[in-house]
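Appendix B. Chain record.
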Amino acid sequence: MAEDMSPEQTLVSAKFVATGFLACVVVFAAVVLIIGPSESEDPMVAYLAAAIAAAALLAHRPIGTIVGRQAQGTVQGRFLTRTLVTFAVLEGPALFNIVALLLEGQLLSLGLATLLVGAMLLAFPTHGKLDQFTAEASQGTN
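Structure tokens predicted for this chain:
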């Protein structure tokens, strides 16, 4: 599929995937905020979610880059793979922090989920990022 795609089609596909990941987190957060979070005296889930969020914030770029380099196929397919993996690494902890917010009502969890969404927005696919990925692939550094 990716081998028949133009760079513009690749970018549109990557943006579509990224938007889906973002929409999932934002809609779930909105539902939790409408329902209203619970309160807990022991925020263990929030602390665990915070640790996982920190790991994801540190690891999302290296993991996406490594997987993008090792993926088989065309440059477009590898770019799509990198986008998917990068956003998946950020989405899971964001959703976990929203669950922690629902269960324990810790604002830390809401803040970290927001930070993870910010990281997703910074990683959003653009023409420049696709061009850079393509250039690095042609030089063999990607």
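Further analysis of this model is presented in Appendix C.
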